[in-house]
Amino acid sequence: MSPFLTTLIIANCSNLTNLSLVTLGKLKYLHRLDISCCKRITDAGIEFFAVGSKTKSLRSLNISEADLLTDKSFETIGKYFGATLHCLKASGLPQITDNGVEKLTRSVVCLKTLDLTFCSQLTDRSSIFLATCQLQVTHSRSFH
């Protein structure tokens, strides 16, 4: 894999595991990562990617329909990529709650697009929090 890779789309890769994310964290110039519909990725994988990441300028992340992800992943994403992330697509995550949205939005500073479509546990609390927080979100898709 080229160390100069800036965009990687590996959506719907059913055999992609947390171990793969350790390797992807070595991509120093990665700006866009799409691991949507990778059903074996867990919070641990997101943490492996973030903590060991040489990627310091991730701008776009798609984790949609990675069913095993929880609020912990939102917290990790905010903590490690909050300064650079412009777009987070996180639709169809059944375990994401209002608490995860709150933790994420407290850490990201330049988020412009947030997709939380079909996150079935979100309530009015998330939409109210997004509307009143200091985020500069320019596009947020509605909840389920």
Question: Which strand order do you get reading across the main beta sheet?
Answer: 1-2-3-4-5-6
| CATH architecture term | Alpha-Beta Horseshoe
CATH C-level category? Alpha Beta
Rg for CA atoms:
14 Å
Q: Please tell me the total number of domains.
A: 1
Structural class: alpha/beta
Note the beta-strand portion.
5-15%
Instruction: Quickly count the helices.
Output: 5
Distance between the termini: 38 Å
Write down the oligomeric state: single chain
Counting DSSP E segments of at least 2 residues, the number of strands comes to 6
Largest sheet: 6 strands, parallel
Name the poorly predicted regions. Answer: none
Question: How does this structure look, described?
Answer:
The chain has one domain (7-141): Leucine-rich repeat, LRR (right-handed beta-alpha superhelix) (Alpha-Beta Horseshoe). α3 runs parallel beside α4. The radius of gyration is 14 Å and the shape is globular. It has helices spanning 18-24, 43-51, 71-81, 98-107, 124-132, and strands spanning 7-9, 32-34, 60-62, 87-89, 113-115, 139-141. With 144 residues, the protein is α/β, with parallel strands linked by helices. Helices cover 32% and strands 12% of the residues. The chain is built from five helices and six strands. The N and C termini lie far apart (38 Å). It has a six-stranded parallel beta sheet with strand order 1-2-3-4-5-6, with no helix packed on it.
